[in-house]
Each structure stands twice: as C-alpha cells, then as structure tokens.
Amino acid sequence: KMASEACCEAGPPVLFAGHTDKGKNTVVDGLECYISGDASTAKTGIIMLYDIFGFEHPQQREIVDRFAAAGYYVVMPDVFRGDPWTLAKFPPSTPELKAEFGQFIERINTAAPGDLETVKAHFASVGLKGKYGVAGFCWGGKWATIAGSDPSFGAAVSAHPAMIDNDLVSKVQCNVAYFPAKGDVDCEPFITTLKANGFTKSYTKRYEDQIHGFCAARGDWNKPEVMAAAEEVIAASVAFFGDCL
Q1: Of 46, 125, 136, 174, which alpha carbon lies 20 to 30 A from 158's?
Q2: What pLDDT sits at residue 3?
Q3: DSSP letter string over 74-106?
Q4: Residue 153, CB half-sphere, CA atoms under 13 Å: how many?
C-alpha cells in the first residue's frame, strides 16, 4: 500500500531532453528491446526493467547507456508490448481505473518471467559468460528482486522499489542494492535478511529528499539536485555491479 501511495503521489512523467539514444531498438526472439553496449567486449549482461510508464522514456534509456558505457551489454525488454500505463489514466483514481490498473499489473507480471528468460537466452547466444546483473525501477524494482532469486544473476539493483516485502527478498540468491525515495518501503529489513542469508555486500541508501521515481520517468532531471541524486544512484549501481559480478 505504501509503495502504491508513493507512486500515485509522485506525479506524472517529466520530459527530459538531455538524452540521445546510444543504443538501438532491436527485436530479440519476437520481443522488442532497447540494447546498448558491445557484447564482444562486455564484462557481462545487465537486464534493465523500467517503471509502469514503459519503454520510451529517456531517463531509463540514459541509464541503459550509462551502464553500457561502464562496460556492460545492457538489454531493456519491452515487457508491456508497446502498451504502458498512460498518463491520461494516472493516477488510477476511479473504481473503474483501479480495476483496469489491477488487470494491467496482472498482464505485465504474467509477461515478465518469460521475457527474463528470453533476454538470458540472448545473453548466452551472444557469448556472455558468468552471472548477469539486473536493475529495476518502481515496478521493475520488484522484478529485479524476483530475478535475484534466479542463480543466473549475481547482483540486483532496485531504485524506488514498489510492491516488495521480506518474503520476496528471502528468496533472493544474490547481493542487492536498494535506493528507496520518499514514501517508499523501508529497505533496512531487506538488507538484514540478505546479509543473514550470506549476501553481505547488500546495502541500502535512502533518498528522502527525492520523489518516488526520481531515477526513472518521473525524475525531473532538468533540476540539478534531482540529476545529482540520479547520477549518484547510477554511479553507485555501476560500482556495485563491478564489485559483485
């Protein structure tokens, strides 16, 4: 409940004009993906999982490109199949919209496991070895945590995670870094669980001065203080992947 309240109160996506795609849209086994980086020289693969506003927002593509610039082969699959939750329906404030939003979440949660497998198979097909990384934002932060229960992944990063609880975290099989924002779930208990399970590099840093979504579509990166916080999370994520993968 808290995560969804933070999500609704954070407002709509913000246009950020400072990004130019360095990667490209590519279809992988029928699944459209945004891919950045050189598989032939990459340290390993990272899957990026976006928020409910979907595939086109430049903030998330910028992060894909930043991870690629750090030496990774990064794939952001379009789990929503070109049909994200639209700004016109946000927040879902009527009973009808709330019911429709529930169906939307069910649809995308049903698609996500198969899409993770598709990207993992793609990583193997382009010759990537070892464990992979996964990063997710808001809804994607939940799925980064779920992916962490798959031993194919050696590290997970989740910024302003939504819909996560300790039961989910207890199944994780890798180190995780959580970067919650104002109104987001307290991630300290998750770190306690992860460390007790042997994933001692796990940690959290809270951004109480930033809204839920500041690293994704709702981050107003035109404001220097928001951009600085997002940059800090990107750099911390790169360092974390470097330490764990």
Answers
A1: 125
A2: 45
A3: EEEE-TTTT----GGG-S--SHHHHHHHHHHHH
A4: 29
